[in-house]
Amino acid sequence: MKDENSCCRLSVDADLIKDAKACLVKNEADLLTQSKIFSLLGNDVRLKIVRLFLEFERMCVCDLADILEMNQSPISQHLRKLKDGGLLLNKREGMTIFYFLNPKEKERLERLIKG
Questions:
Q1: Residue 2 covered by a domain
Q2: Higher per-residue confidence, 35 vs 114
């Protein structure tokens, strides 16, 4: 019985293989960065948080906890991961820490999330 997903090529396209490998090597840094971003955004809560930051300039943990109807502790953990991943920055104002998108990543995130 033949598996329809198996490959039975008649000849190897050596140029395709060589060019595709070169493409991966050439784009290795970008692919690593994109992989990290996709990993961070692969969690629905973090994706929602980033989507909110694309619409609203800055928010604190309390704001996000109220919006997402979650406790502050898990929100803080998600914010930490996004900050450690370079997607968010924060600024303390008095007793409140406000989070916002890293301007260097905002355009990329808009393209990924908003399309």
A1: no
A2: 35
Number of domains comprising the chain:
1
**Pairing state between β 59-60 and 96-101:** antiparallel
Domain of residue 48: give its range: 14-114
Handedness of CA 80, 52, 46, 64 (dihedral sign): positive
Nearest to 112 by CA among 27, 71, 51: 51
The 10s digit of each residue's pLDDT in 25-61 is: 999 998 998 899 999 999 999 999 999 999 999 999 9
Structural domain contains residue 103? yes
CA distances in angstroms from 114 to 7, 44, 52, 55, 88, listed in the order given: 37, 15, 11, 10, 17
Q: Report the chain's C-alpha Rg in angstroms.
A: 20
Strand partners, 84: none
The residue to which tokens 């393209």 are assigned? 111
The answer to whether residues 47 and 114 touch, using CB atoms and an 8 Å cutoff, is no
* pTM (whole model) above 0.85: no
